[in-house]
Amino acid sequence: MSNVQWATQSQVAHKFIRMKTIEIKGSVRADLGKKATRELRKNGQVPCVVYGGESVTHFSAPVDAFRGLIYTPNIYIVDLVIDGKASKAILKDVQYNCVSDAIEHIDFLEVSDKKPVSIALPVKLNGLAEGVRQGGKLVLKIRKIRVKGLIAKLPDLLEIDVTNLGLGKAIKIQDLSFDGLELLEAKNIVVATVKMTRAALNADAAAAAEAK
User: Fold this and answer.
1) How many angstroms separate the CA atoms of 170 and 77, rounded?
2) Host domain of residue 173
3) Distance CA 171, CA 45 (A)
4) Do 42 and 9 belong to one domain?
5) Final residue of a structural domain among 83, 113, 143
6) pTM higher than 0.85 for the full model?
7) Phi-psi bin for 2: left (phi > 0), alpha (psi -120 to 50), beta?
């Protein structure tokens, strides 16, 4: 039998911080041909598409507009303004050039206040785990958790208090709950654990030897 003991829900605390927003302004694309697309990229524009609303919209925006959205661990609700028309969206996919790593294309999903969306949110562990005090090593096993909820309920990240997480113990998806969110990961997935280190094992062995 494994020596890992699972944390209970009473050992796990959460903090809600509403997801941040970022504005991106773009222009509707009149020509979707390959030649026009190459010309857009040559001029520092990124071809994009937003779907999920009443219609699919192809647009472009300056590559610099996406740096704060893509090159960051943060997750954002995107305020899209396309030729003056505003909507809310989330980033769904980014395609990069296989040679230069330049952004080739971006997909967005339009969202509304009334329709739940699925999104992967980053995990942050808070507190000094009890097991770390005992010589163990805190390990974050998954950096993002897929959730489903209304955009008003989506936090900036998922904060988990590990203060009471002991040596050899772990937190699984089934141990977590967040108001207004459905967790989409398998319940038995380990989110964080405190592993026994060689130093801790040696200390236990020394203590056992002294006890004899």
Assistant:
1) 31
2) 5-17+118-211
3) 44
4) no
5) 113
6) no
7) beta
Query: Given the structure tokens 């739940």, which residue do they identify?
Result: 116
Nearest to 131 by CA among 1, 14, 15, 3: 3
- Looking at the structure, do residues 93 and 140 belong to the same domain, yes or no? no
CB 93 within 8 A of CB 107: yes
Regarding whether 33 and 13 lie in a shared domain, the answer is no
User: Amino acid identity, residue 157?
Assistant: L
**Model confidence over 74-90: pLDDT tens digits?**
889 999 999 999 999 99
Residue whose pair of structure tokens reads 């989110």 in the numeric block: 191
Domain shared by 68 and 147, yes or no? no
- According to DSSP, the β-strands at 117-126 and 158-161 are parallel
pLDDT at 185 (0 to 100): 97
Q: How confident is the model at residue 93 (pLDDT cuts 50, 70, 90)?
A: very high
Which residues touch 181 (CB under 8 Å, ≥6 apart)? 147, 148, 149, 153, 154
Number of domains in the chain: 2
Please tell me whether residue 20 adopts helix, strand or coil conformation: strand
Closest by CA position to 146, among listed 176, 120, 115, 123: 120
* CATH number, position 134: 2.170.120.20
Last residue of a domain, one of 93, 113, 133: 113
Q: Hey, what amino acid is at 149?
A: G
Nearest to 61, CA basis, from 78, 44, 36:
44
Burial zone of 42 (CB within 10 Å; 0-12 exposed, 13-18 middle, 19+ buried): exposed
